[in-house]
Amino acid sequence: MAFCLSGVRSFPKLWKNKPFLGLDPGQASLCFFSPGYCAIRSQQRWFSLKTASSQNKKAVDLLIAKARSLKKGGKDYKKQVSPHYLFAAGAAKKRSRMTISQSNKDHALPKKCSNIQLPIKPLNSEEWDRLKEDFEGKANFEDWIISQMVKCHASIDVAKSLLAWVAAKNNGIVSYNLLIRYLHLCVTHKQTSEVIDVYEIMKSRYKRLESSGYSLLIRGLIHSDRWRDALTLLEDVKKIMIPSKKNYSDCIQGALLHQDVDLAWNLYQDLLGHDIIPMMETLKAFFDFGKDIKDEHYSNKLLDMLLYLRNNQLFPGESFVHSIKTWFESIPGKQWKGQFTTIQESGHCLGCGKSLESIHLTPEEYEFLKEQIMKDVIDGGNQYRKTTPQELKIFQTFVNSCPPFDIVIDGLNVGKMCPKACDSEVLLNVVSQLAKQNLHLLVLGRKHMLTNRSQWRESDMKMIQKQASCFFADNISKDDPFLLYAALNSGNHCKFITKDLLRDHKACLRDAKTQRLFTKWQQGHQLAIINSSLRSKITFQHILRYDTVVQTTGDSWHIPYDEDLVERYSYEVPTKWLCLQRKS
Amino acid sequence: MNVSITGLRPFARFLVSFTHQRRKINLYPIPQRYMCSKKPAVPYPNKENSSPPALLELDGWKTTMKSSLQEESVSTVSSKDEDTLAATRELIEMWRLISKEVPEHITEEELKSVMELPSKSAKRKYLKYLSIKERMKKAKQMKKEAKAVAREEAKQAKLLETTAEKEQNFLFLRLWDRNMNIAMDWKGAQAMQFGQPLVFDMAYDNCMNGKELRNTVSQLLESEGWNRRNVDPFHIYFCNLKIDSTYHRELVKCYKEKWDKLLITTTEKSYTDLFPKDSIVYLTADSPNVMTTFKHDKIYIIGSLVDKCMKPGLSLAKAKQLGLATQCLPLDKYLQWDMGTKNLTLDQMIRILLCLKNTGDWQEALKFVPKRKHSGYMEVSQYSREFVNRLKKKTFSSYPQNSLNVGTQKK
Fold it and tell me: With contacts defined as CB-CB under 8 Å, which chain B residues touch A13?
């Protein structure tokens, strides 16, 4: 949405009293590109809509996507993006779109607070007085009007005239509240000299500020010659609380802007020391700056940064990945060559043909994960919550007495797949199709499946038990933990079938690292059935063979990245890659 | 920056705190000169195309704002530990200036606990809690004062009136409250001897944080109060209540000297030791079995647990561990549930149980379920229609006994 914002910022003072044109995409785009015709109210609407409703964001996305597809010669943009894969970026969005038909609800109109038109040029005190008389509302007039100005990015001259009027009324005193809003305006308009003035005022008037004041000052000051003051402000913030990642990001960018590389790295270390995950912009700034530096030490640190991305499973955004590419290509003598690609299903990069890291866990990781699942998900401090100790014991002896399974099936999840068909029939269908392939199956279920009922026919269940090993848990036990344990216990080749994304079990794991291991294992071993008709041959959503993570082989790098226009859920992984190769 | 704007308070504060400067400033002619709005000013360096506001002086206020420099920066020397304390205090003060929800007055201990909170959002939440508390207290105080004034006036008016008619014949002295208490105590004593036991399971104190525990205790207090006022009270048991646990301390703190005179049984023992296992029914919303009727020969157990941190299945696990029967209220059967958890508060539970005990009418009993959680009672016809629909889906012949379990099983 940076697009929309920058569009607005570029025409700060061209408001005229033209009526708004409506929200039809075509007309909206007209608003976009010919900003002169936008009325104030329409801009407010743009803002409120942008934040309030995803619907509108979607509309904008679609608009842009449409424009793109035109450029690409009418290809369907969305279809091109995501392959059939459970954890691909944007897949959840697509799924939800398939299930829920879009209803075109009207957007709630922004609350009309007052009939006051924001002034477009500075007013004198009589005019302000008059405006104040028109104002009706509970809030303080000065506070209200300046917050409206901040919302609409009014020009700072108008705000300044307001402050002058307030000061005149108040013996030269302007409240902190107003000053902060004014500072906000100055920072958004990048009026550095004004920022410095306000900084002086704040410094003289208040011994300490609060977090938003510090943040604004830091952001404003880094562009000026007095950028080092931003660092002292950062120190002040540290006295009261841990600075935000935005604070650090601003300071680092300021340091880089003024060529103080060591300071920037120190700040970066400091940031990591507080266990804050840095903003992508911060990392991007280092890469952008690195283009002009031909220094072994610096480039090593950048490579460390890429490893940091790898270890924390972070994915750069589109603009960041461009910076990475240009930085690599700017390294003299090594002749890196970068290209944006996708990965084949077999796990080979389309750009260079190399195969990527396997999705399978290492033996140590595998053991660790198994232990953690047992400890946190199944046991969880109180065995009675998910199951009972007796049942757990029975299950464990059962699993250990059987040879390793090839596929573990969540019977209830699979059975309930087709709402119209009989549950046991669906399950039997799946089991028999798999059994024909000579796979050793385990079907997990609950005891109530065995009582002969319309949904679970006894004859079907008998057939299932003939073709697969079965384990039926108590009706009030959770069956998913058993599924996980059975699959993990059988070894690396074993897959499991369920459509469940298992997020609640992932949440039971204690730290982020274990959760990432779990995600990785899940991505490599979960089979989700796509087709929902009973008779057809079952097909699975295809499993990734490769691990989606920043990876290197020394003379090549493969970096997955997020596209700007695809919304990725946290359990999904990007599908686009940057492939970097060394020529020499 | 979406700070809600409330009132003139920040302004007022400034007026108060800078009045001494105002006098000083007035001595100098500079501010007035600058404040004059019809002063020719410097042209704008940054905006060429702006409409010429040349007649307005816009930068004058800065001078006066800066002029207080010397007076402010006097007292800044302090030791390290006090420094952070003062910094936090000032942070709160500044937050108040931008209309964040923070308390006006804060004690030393509260300030320390603010400092110890790990994150900014935790600090904000705690401060908001403090400010709401403060506001409530203030509103209460105001109301109290207004009431006192009104009472005084009423007294005066009455004095004028009642001088005429002095002699009246009364049957009772005005001792209603005390009489009521005595009567309730009699009933309570009777319940201690012959009443149906109702157990509160207090074994959850290590599953709750301080806030939840305090909420639980206040709910317990309320439940006990509802029970006391009933025609036919339960004989309440607080089981698994460890002496000198936080629970015990909180309860004693709330009841004070009344604690030892309460007509309930408190014990460190478990209910399984006190009652036969097969007559115990553990009430929990997670139970697969639905309560159909209130049985007068059963011992119902309510887990005294406020669960705000999403730990589902705790009480069910407990019942499973001890091998007890469980039941849940038939909320879905009688109410059209809208939102909210099916976990009810302890006082709601006891009121429902009391009502069931006395009348046995579910409709009547379930009126204690908060109205916001449901949109009305299920009509009998509607429920039976759904029931028949469900039956239609199955073959009729082999229908199992506990039909109500079907809905709770996994879909």
Answer: 50
